Amino acid sequence: MPFAELYQQIDDLSAEIATLTKNDKFEHVEAKLSLRLELLKTLTKQVRDTNSENLENELQEFLRKVQAQDNIQVELLLKERAKSLADGQKQSKKKKAVNTYQNVSNN
Asked: CB under 8 Å to 59, separation ≥6 — which residues?
């Protein structure tokens, strides 16, 4: 597969992953990440097989860009997880309060 096509597919997958994450469609993210990883491995192998310093530098720059995008996505997911945990704790406290009221009113 030509380099340009691999770069484009990886960029497209990264954009899809970001959109899925933004839209809380996390169930599809893992498959997209796995596919992107396979494409990244293929691209890396093909570039290394050329022994071209220019292509290797281009690949390194591309990988840094992908990593920067991933760091943003991880940060968003960590915030979502913290929010979910906080919501879960609030729900637990509310449930406990309701149970306490029910126990008090039953006695």
From this structure: 43, 44, 47
What is the residue whose two structure tokens read 């169930």? 27
Task: State pLDDT tens for residues 12-47.
Answer: 999 999 999 888 888 898 999 999 999 999 999 999
Give the residue extent of every domain in the chain: 3-78
pLDDT of residue 66: 95
> Hunting for tokens 């126990």 — which residue is that?
103
Give the whole-angstrom CA distance, residue 46 versus residue 3. Answer: 8
Cα–Cα distance between 59 and 57 in angstroms, integer? Answer: 5
